[in-house]
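Appendix B. Raw example, untouched.
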Amino acid sequence: MLRYETLVLAIPEATDDECSALESQFNKIVEQNKGKLTSFDRWGKYRLAYAVNRQRYGIYFLARFDATETGKHNMLDEINKLLTIKLENLVMRSLTSVLDPKTPVDYRRPAPLDERPRNVDEFLKENKMDGLLKEERHEARANTSSLAAEEAPELDIDLDADLE
């Protein structure tokens, strides 16, 4: 068995239904050619280094599969046709490569845009900006407002007298 992986870059507007259809069609082609789909991971949405098909963002998928020596050519041709012809409105780019069977199957990826923490304090901790955390910001504001109140001169103004 030969091990392959295909990296797919889809349009950022891809729906969940389109993504699941991509996975099921990919799996169908692999199984029809006596292969085995070992993983199909949706990496998520990322900002691209340069525009692809006038898109600045894209959704990445990584599919890893095994193929037999006899069925590999037919399988790779059908996968290529699926990604370039049948799903041309969904897939912007794809790349299939052969993996060394001795290579470990883990990979490390950065957090995609649609999974990043939305909480400001989590973002500050994650990026080692502890000095800007909420508690410290409130303490700093309290200190500044008390200093401002001490320095402000007291004015003796009767606001009600002006309204009459």
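End of appendix B.
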